[in-house]
Amino acid sequence: MAARMPKGPGARPPRARRCKELRVRAPKMPAMASCWYCNTELSETAQYCPACGHSQIDRSSSPLFGVVDPVTGIWNSKFINALIGQEANRAVRYHRPLSVLVVEIDHAEHIHNELGHVQVEGLLREISERLGRAIRDTDTVAFLDADGPPHFAIVLPETDEQGATLAADKIRRSIASHDFTSSGTWQRITVSCGAATIPVTSGMHDEAGFVGNRREYTGNLLREGYQALEAGRAAGTNRTSVGAYRS
């Protein structure tokens, strides 16, 4: 026997019809995206990020365009190289210590082969965040645009070799103790650090690349950090090598 259709002004339509009407009336959720600079979630049609204020349409209009790495959201090699030069000259002029750390992800090739492109980028962002939390407010971390394994550079003002060793060990512990499974299948990741330091000197000549009476640094701290890192590689991974090379 066929069901009777309800009649009258107060009658409710059949259930199937009501569900269809609800589906038609339900508003569509806007497609979501993330800010290219701070990764804040926002609407795909948003022109500006409400958190950091950067334009989502024209990145070149941002004052940080060209000096921020688009994947990690931290400073890039262009910025950090300029900063190291500036800080090195200041350290030489005022006879203050300065250290630079070069941080490399251990087993980076295996990680890259096992994870997809999106997961690798997520992992780099997560590592960048951990590095930022492990350093002082006066320190600066950057992602280096280099071929091969990913590298990070950290500038440590007012820091001698002993302080650089302590900072590097703190960074290694911070990375090794973190669970990275949210960015891929690798739960535990370690890093190795190489450091170069401009010590406090009062003599006329110094083997670190500058003359005591000069007002600018003639060495290359970043290169020396790379050399220290490579020198320590022979002893294994998850290690710190400080002052292993002087230009």
Describe the overall structure.
The strands form three sheets. This protein has a five-stranded mixed beta sheet with strand order 4-5-3-6-9, with helices on both faces. A two-stranded antiparallel sheet has the order 1-2. A hairpin with a 6-residue loop joins strand 4 (140-144) and strand 5. Residues 203-208 have low confidence and may be disordered. The chain is built from six helices and nine strands. By secondary structure, the chain is α+β, with helices and mostly antiparallel strands. Helices cover 34% and strands 17% of the residues. It is globular, with a radius of gyration of 27 Å. The longest helix is centred in the middle third of the chain and has 18 residues, at 77-94.
Task: Compute the CA-based radius of gyration.
Answer: 27 Å
Strand content: 15-25%
Number of helices: 6
Oligomer: single chain
Which regions have little confidence, pLDDT < 50, spanning 5+ residues? 203-208
Largest sheet: 5 strands, mixed
Nearest-integer average pLDDT: 80
Global outline:
globular
Largest sheet strand order: 4-5-3-6-9
Helix content range: 25-40%
User: What are the secondary-structure elements, in order, as H or E?
Assistant: HEEHEHHEEHEEEHE
Judged by helices, strands and strand pairing, the structural class is: alpha+beta
How far is it from the N-terminal to the C-terminal residue, by CA? 96 Å
Number of strands: 9
